[in-house]
Amino acid sequence: xxxxxxxxxxxxNYGKAESGLQKYYHKVEKVIYHTPREFTKExxxxxxxxxxxxDEFMTQPDTSNGLxxxxxGISLVMxxxxxIPTGEKWTIMPIIFLSVxxxxxxxxxxxxxxxxxxxxxxxxxxxxxxxxxxLYQPNITMRFKNVIFCFSTGGENGLGAxxxxxxxxxxxxxxxxxxxxxxxxxxxxxxxxxxDKNRPLPPGSAFDPFRQKDFERRKAxxxxxxxxxxxxxxxxxxxxQQKERERFWKEEFVEKDGVLMRHxxxxxxxx
Length: 271
Description:
There is one protein chain. The longest helix has 23 residues, at about 90-115. The strands form four sheets. The chain has a five-stranded antiparallel β-sheet with strand order 2-3-4-5-6, with no helix packed on it. It is about 30% helix and about 20% strand. It contains seven helices and twelve strands. A hairpin with an 8-residue loop joins strand 5 (about 130) and strand 6 (about 140-145). The chain has about 270 residues and is of the alpha+beta class. Among the domains are: about 65-115; about 220-265, no CATH class. It starts with 17 loop residues before the first helix and ends in a 5-residue tail after the last strand. It has helices spanning about 20, 40-45, 65-85, 90-115, 185-195, 210-220, 240-245; strands spanning about 30, 50-55, 55-60, 120-125, 130, 140-145, 150, 165, 175, 230, 250-255, 260-265.
């Protein structure tokens, strides 16, 4: 499975737009803001949000069929509604709506049968993320640390707002990233925790078969310090492992002026 999920890097950064995008006011920083949703082994097997999970890779189901089904379905309903005999004389507006709906339906049918394979892969081992390309564009693979995440604004009524998205580097459109959290900050918490290979695996029985292997790897590496910030503790799976890690460093949270501050206490033998 591991070899099948390795993808070559397609983009290193965002080119000339990098500096501007880094200042995007909808940007969501890679931080573990909250304790995220726990994924069970059963939920992974059912293929809901994720359909594969290990200490090295996670994959999400192909969601690209959603566009042709939703847009195509709406277009088909519009066509039937417009073609229902009413006895009224046709004006320019019904003709325009019928034309647009017909073109949309035809496009959705063609796209459904000709769209390229879409992939969403978290490569924790190598620190890479593969996201779906827009429409006929190929998938994009970047280093997780270089991907710029943001939140959606939603409609005028706020519906669909605060969903986590990744900005694509080839055309600056948005790819949805979701882990079924309450909002973008819960989803970002999960992705950041999982992709920080210097931390234990996130909570949830889906990762229980891999915890010992992951612990031994980090131990052999000298328990390197985390790659990303966290607002919540991310302890080892059991007290014995926690004590062994704390021989190298201990992550503590101290409240100062009403703000929870994080710092590391070093044992003096960490690398």
